[in-house]
Specification:
The protein is mainly α. The protein has one domain. 77% of the residues lie in helices and 0% in strands. It has 6 helices and no strands. The chain is globular, with a radius of gyration of 15 Å. The two termini are 24 Å apart.
Length: 115
């Protein structure tokens, strides 16, 4: 039981680290309760208005919207699809891993092993 509690405490610190990384990536200077995803959506929307959005940008935006709505499985499916086309995209890898983390925090223990 002590090992499990220590694991939970470490996991919470990792979750906080992931959240801080997500905020820094999205350029957010404050937390407004949505994990900074709304700023990512705004950024992707602004970029898509300037030029034709790439397939990766479209998939990132769709996946982020699913995450914002709490539809983690759909978000993961979108991120995994994006990785098939753009394997070296850091944002896709980050948000895919973040989706696994959210699933684990909701109690899906197997998701952590897959991440």
């Amino acid at each position: 039981m002590v090992i499990y509690k220590n694991f939970q405490m470490k996991l919470k610190s990792h979750s906080l680290s992931a959240l801080c990384l997500a905020i820094s990536i999205s350029g957010c200077s404050s937390i407004n309760g949505d994990l900074g995803i709304s700023n990512l959506l705004k950024d992707l929307g602004n970029k898509s208005q300037q030029a034709e959005p790439t397939r990766t940008q479209v998939l990132l935006k769709a996946g982020a919207e699913y995450l914002q709505n709490g539809e983690i499985d759909k978000a993961q499916a979108v991120f995994n699809t994006g990785l098939k086309f753009d394997l070296n995209n850091a944002a896709l890898h980050f948000f895919n891993a973040f989706a696994y983390q959210l699933k684990f925090e909701k109690g899906e223990i197997d998701a952590f092993a897959n991440a």
